[in-house]
C-alpha cells in the first residue's frame, strides 16, 4: 500500500509528542530508517495506491521521495547529536513536528489529485511552523508568523488557481477526474484562457512556498531562526515539494500546447529570483541567511531551466537533486559552526580551518559544490540549463543567468573565505564527533558520486520526469 509511506511517520510523529526525550530521539532515527526502507521498496515494486483517485506513483514524485527519505534519515542521525549539544525547550514538540513534517512532505510527493496536493502542501506549513519557533525568542516568533502568514496567502492563491483549472474543465465540457494525470491526458480539451489564469495563480501561490522572488521574504528569516536540522529540511526538501506542484501543473500546460506561455513566466520568475538572491548575498552578514539566499538563487535556476524545457529541464532536475544534497549538508554544517562559535554573524567566526577542521572540510566542500564549481553536480546542472537556453534561442536570459552566477559566486566566496581563514579569538569547546560531521560527508559524497555515475533506474526516472513535461530533447 503506497499510503503507508506517509502514514507511518504520521503515527510515530503523534507518538513522539507524548514520550520522553530518551525515547523521542531514537524514535526519530528509527522512523527515518523505516521511511527510507519503505521508499526503496516503493521504488522497486511500485504498487498500486489504495486510493487511486488521490495518489499515484510518478517519476517526479518518486525522485523527490527518495531525496526526502535519504535526507531525513541522515538529518535524524545528526539531530540526535545536535540535541545533545544544544538547549532546546520542549524537545518532544521538536521531534514530533519533524516526523509530522516528514509525513506531510511524503504526502506531497505521492499526491495526484489537484486538491489533495494543495492540502498536503498546506499541511507542510502547519507541521513545520513549530520547528521555526523552537528557540522561543522574539525573532523566532516573528519569523514563524511571517512564514505562516506569507505562505498561507500564497497557498490561498494556489487554491484559487486550482479552482480556475476546474473551471477550465467546465467551460471545455470535460468529464474527467480532477487529478494531474487525468488533466494532462485531456489537456487539449480544457479552456486555454481559464487554464492560463489557473497556472498563473498556482505559480505565484506555490512559488511563494518555493521561495521565488518577490514572494521569498519569509525564507531568510525562517531558515535563520530554525534549528539547523529543521533548516536543512526546509531548504533541502520543502522547497522541492512546492516545486512539484508547479511542475505537475506545467505538465498540463505543455500537454495543452501552452508551454510557451508557462515557460516564459517560469523563466521570468527564475531570473528575478537569481537577481534578488545575488543582491542580498553580496552584503550578507549572517551565514545561515547567506545559505537561505543561496537557496533562493538555486530555486530560480530550477524555475528558469524548467521554463526553458528540453536540456534546460534536464539540468533543472539535476540541480534539484544536487541542491537538496548539498544545501542540507551546508545547513547541518552551519549547526556545528553555531554550536562552536555561539553566533550566526560571519564577523564572529573565522579560522574554521584550524579550530574545527572536520567541519571546515564539510563547509568548504559544500561551498565549492553549491557555487557550481566542477566536478560537482550543480555545475553540470547549470551547464545544461545554459546550453538549453542558448539552444532554445533565449540568449538574453542565458546571458543574465551567467553574469548573475558569477556575481553570486564572488559574494559567496568572499564570505566563505572570512569564515574559513580570517583570524579568530574564539574558544571552541565543541567536540567534532562522528555523528556531527558524518551525515554531511555522506551527503556531499552522494552528490559527487552522482556526478560520475547515475544508476540506470535513477537515470530512467529522471528522463521520464523530463520527457513527461517537455516531450524530450
Summarize the structure.
The protein is an all-alpha fold and 473 residues long. It has a domain at 258-473.
Could you report the average pLDDT, rounded to the nearest whole number?
90
The Rg value, from CA coordinates, equals 21 Å
Strand content bin: under 5%
Question: Roughly how much helix do the residues carry, as a percent range?
Answer: over 70%
The total of helices stands at: 19
Secondary-structure element order, N to C? HHHHHHHHHHHHHHHHHHH
Cα shape: globular
Q: Care to count the β-strands?
A: 0
The largest β sheet comes out as:
none
The class by helix and strand makeup works out as mainly alpha
Low-pLDDT segments = none
Distance between the ends: 35 Å
Features:
78% helix, single chain, 473 residues
Description:
This protein has 473 residues and is an all-alpha fold. The chain has a domain at 258-473. 78% of the residues lie in helices and 0% in strands. The protein is built from 19 helices and no strands. It has helices at residues 4-16, 21-45, 59-85, 91-110, 114-132, 138-171, 180-185, 192-210, 218-225, 228-255, 259-281, 287-308, 311-341, 352-355, 357-370, 377-391, 395-421, 434-452, 456-470. The longest helix is centred in the N-terminal third of the chain and has 34 residues, at 138-171. The two termini are 35 Å apart.
Topology record:
Layout: H1 4-16, H2 21-45, H3 59-85, H4 91-110, H5 114-132, H6 138-171, H7 180-185, H8 192-210, H9 218-225, H10 228-255, H11 259-281, H12 287-308, H13 311-341, H14 352-355, H15 357-370, H16 377-391, H17 395-421, H18 434-452, H19 456-470
Helix pairs in contact: 1-2, 1-4, 2-3, 2-4, 3-4, 3-10, 3-13, 3-18, 3-19, 4-5, 4-10, 5-6, 5-10, 6-8, 6-9, 8-10, 8-11, 9-10, 9-12, 10-11, 10-12, 10-13, 11-12, 11-17, 12-13, 12-16, 12-17, 13-15, 13-16, 13-18, 13-19, 15-18, 16-17
